[in-house]
Write a structure and sequence with these properties.
The structure is a homodimer of 429-residue chains.
Chain A (H helix, E strand, L loop, with lengths): L2 H30 L2 H17 L1 H18 L3 H7 L3 H16 L7 E6 L5 E8 L2 E5 L5 H12 L3 E5 L5 H17 L7 E3 L5 H7 L8 E6 L1 H10 L7 E2 L3 E5 L5 H13 L8 E7 L7 H10 L3 E4 L1 H4 L8 E2 L13 E7 L1 H12 L4 E5 L3 H10 L4 E6 L16 E3 L7 E3 L5 E12 L3
Parallel strand pairs in A: 3-4, 3-6, 4-5, 6-7, 8-9, 8-13, 9-12, 10-11, 10-12, 13-14
Antiparallel strand pairs in A: 1-2, 2-17, 15-16
């Protein structure tokens, strides 16, 4: 490090510490605000998004042209793009969050003890949440809105390619906070998209209570490695669908095509199809043909490559079993029974969402019990892995770790609790 | 590091990795074992403790004479001591854990979606839990038993002073596992009490899912600083009792004496008494006199030192407000109203257990809302901070963090969950 960069880094550390302290103070204020005030801020933010729609789209245009110049893929560019419909969708999303029941103050348990003590377990905010995410700028509104709803301050770190768009969206959220008389510092973002700022953020355990990283294995591992703060990982989905020997063929075909092809870019999309050896002759040709006619590229093991399905099947190499394509590509592997399927999934999956298709209830139950994932499905498409589809409302994402919250993370999951004990002078014998 | 210590360290790393992999494999087996098998292991371990009582007491005698030679305090020696009653208490504790309802497989939520998907949220084990604790050897039985009950493998690291006692107890737990046909590696301890082994343990994120440190601020901070694994901190209790201006004097006196003096060595003992300025003349003399006659040393601020209570009051220095005495000593401070009390507690407390004594319901509710602690009490002794007193059965301790579990941590709190989704071929539109 040169003397000059060391000075710059000291400046950044000091700026980050100010930001952390401001977030901590804002969190204390937010925790005491009533549900009306938090919901007013969400409503006002939605209005601001609509008012500032043109400005947000103009900021997005700057990000888009930089991204095009950098040669980002069409899929990435689509993730980044904002138009008036997408801005309106963000505004509607904030209004929907405002309409949820209040996640705070919920009585999670209540008990009366023989000695007369009344014990209540009450939902409270976590405090300050740091959220690290990649390209989609709408996460700024969704994640910020959920933190605000649950009484938490948030420090956001979006991808550098969406910096202008996210900045414009954040201004609207802060306008909502101001209008509701809440501190602007309740929702902030890092002063720079420089990686060094993330590194500093991950050490700020005094002022940040939880880090939520959303993204691929590289990002998650870096964060878990560096963070001095508890991490709730949202790893991308490397999801499997397993066609058991007793699967209904038509159902298996429909589920496989939907699980892979409905939307290829979401984390609940199936990336690897496992087919039981006993279903290879009976089921696999139809399943593969349906995937191919839906426009999917097949990468298979030797058995799959040898199938005659009217098109050639590429070879799946070792790396394919660990690849989240997020594209119209699927890897297909023949497995020797349920044990083999479960063992492949527990080794290669991202503990996100896994499915079995079978008419055999015993096999289904064994799969549900033994697969180690946030969501395990029987006879359903992995694309249902979504807080909205679960009836939980908006979500920050699907937590793939086992601590605190697992599966869809909405406003309720961004809370902790405390025990309130009410007595009339009891002392312990 | 010399070449020789480097080799020794490599050996230790390799031994620790073997231990971690064995724990991971045992956890997978344990997760599939039914409740009867886990309870059989607990019952058999209780029997083994009774059978081996003499051997355990002999091992404890070795620890005791080393501790006496080291000059440990009488309080520390008492924590370390095992006699036949205490061994019997451990056996009864394991039997009580066996009698609890099964924490696994509990249906935490169930919902049926409009599209016919059935969604169930089911309790599952966390996996492998590393537990780091200090002197009391009985923690080996309690913590090991709770992990086994909840289907988790455990890696235990007790204090070096109790190494022989803990080893003898662990052998009984492992005998129970063997007898029930479960893998011995489900409960292991570090091969050495060398601090280096703890350092290695804290990096084993592949094989350990959660670290539970129980102890003082130094231990907790070291673990939080070094750990690459999520930490559920059990910080010692720096608990306060606040006598509000509208407190009933007799109740305030009884609670203060009980909260401090019933047992001074437990984490729920009050260490600092806050007295509202408006209660100084009316309440404080009686409260202080009662504490003194119960054998308590008083350390006070200027106002408290000036009180005439028939004995001299020592000066409380800055450090006293951050000291957990675990002894017959209390620091006493006069505060200017509820705001001042809450602010002192949120700054100096360990987020464990805090109490207010008052007849004013509004003041009580404000205190319950604004104090940031796992347990907040109104008109009750802080000594009630205990899983058993909460009706939750045995506990590993009181979690002082906000992530995953807060407050008493029993078998239920050592679980995660997964969502099971059952369909009949649904695909997402």
């Amino acid at each position: 490090m040169t003397a000059e960069t060391a000075v710059l880094r000291d400046d950044l550390v000091s700026e980050m510490n100010d930001l952390g302290r401001a977030a901590r103070a804002a969190a204390a204020e937010l925790a005491m605000a009533g549900p009306e005030q938090r919901n007013d801020a969400l409503q006002a933010a939605a209005e601001a998004l609509r008012d500032q729609s043109d400005k947000i789209i103009a900021a997005n245009a700057v990000d888009m042209s930089a991204a095009e110049a950098k040669g980002l893929s069409a899929a990435m560019l689509d993730r980044l793009l904002l138009d008036s419909d997408r801005v309106e969708a963000m505004a509607l999303g904030l209004e929907a969050i405002a309409d949820f029941p209040d996640p705070l103050g919920r009585v999670l348990e209540e008990r009366s003890r023989p000695n007369g003590l009344q014990i209540a377990k009450i939902a409270v905010p976590l405090g300050v949440i740091g959220i690290i995410y990649e390209s989609r700028p709408n996460v700024t509104a969704d994640a910020g809105g959920l933190c605000l709803k649950s009484g938490n301050a948030a420090i956001l770190r979006g991808g550098s390619e969406s910096a202008n768009s996210s900045g414009a969206i954040l201004e609207c959220l802060q306008a909502g906070l101001r209008k509701a008389g809440l501190p602007e510092a309740a929702l902030q973002r890092l002063p720079t998209t420089d990686r060094a700022a993330v590194g500093i953020m991950l050490t700020m355990s005094e002022d940040i209570d939880l880090i939520v990283p959303r993204g691929g294995r590289g990002l998650i591992e870096r964060v878990q490695q560096e963070s001095r703060i508890p991490v709730m990982a949202h790893l991308d989905g490397l999801c499997h669908t397993y066609i058991h020997g007793d699967a209904d063929k038509e159902m298996a075909t429909e589920i496989a095509v939907n699980a892979k092809m409905r939307r290829t870019g979401i984390c609940g999309a199936t990336e690897t199809l496992l087919v039981d050896r006993s279903a290879v002759e009976s089921h696999l040709p139809d399943v593969l043909k349906a995937l191919v006619s839906a426009g999917c590229e097949i990468r298979g093991d030797e058995t799959v490559q040898a199938m005659e399905i009217g098109t050639s099947v590429k070879e799946a190499v070792a790396q394919d079993w660990d690849t989240e394509y997020l594209d119209s590509i699927i890897s297909v592997k023949v497995v020797d029974g349920l044990d083999d399927a479960v063992s492949h999934i527990n080794q290669h999956g991202s503990h996100h969402t896994e499915a079995i298709v079978t008419e055999d209830q015993t096999a289904a139950q064994a799969f549900l019990n033994r697969v180690d994932a946030a969501i395990v499905m029987h006879n359903a498409s992995t694309q249902y892995a979504d807080g909205g589809e679960f009836g939980m409302g908006a979500e920050i994402g699907i937590s793939t770790g086992k601590l605190h919250a697992r599966g869809p993370v909405g406003a309720d999951q961004l809370t902790s609790y405390k025990y309130l004990v009410r007595g009339r002078g009891q002392v312990r014998p």
